[in-house]
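Hi, here's the filled form for the chain we discussed.

Project: internal
Contact: R.S.
Residues: 170
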Amino acid sequence: MRKSLDFLYLAAGILAAMFMIGTLAMVLASVLGRMMNFNLRGSDAYAGYCMAAAGFLALAHTLKRGEHIRVTLVLERMGATGRHRLELVAHAIALFFSGMFAFFTARLVYQSYVFNDISQGNDATPLWIPQIAMAVGAAVLFIAILDEFVLLVSGRKLKPVDSGELKAME
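And the returned structure, exactly as it came back:
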């Protein structure tokens, strides 16, 4: 199970990197189009879609690598028992909100599909297509926070390593 979860987080991170490259490609295409006097319709919108996809898909990978910003001012001043309890409360709150976020983003994708919602730009893209990356990123973040919560409850801690793999510590 651990290898499957680690693969999921790594795959989401790789997809995020690919969307970052997509953002670069769209911006470059737009710039080159302006230099050569032609308009590449929707390139600005697609750059935005790629940027949003990269941001959402990178959330879980960033969390599991220990790169999210944490305010540890209170945690540092507590004993081991108090720290563990506060971590449990913080993870439970994060689990609740990430679950709600994943649910409502998936619902947004569904509603955009049902109502045939399209972008306001001249590209007229059905919005459910770029919104899928947001929903997938939110769902993978929920899984990652659930993973962290289960590890915390079971007394194990996840240690990020440099090679891109994540290892559970006993």
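Let me know if anything looks off before we file it.
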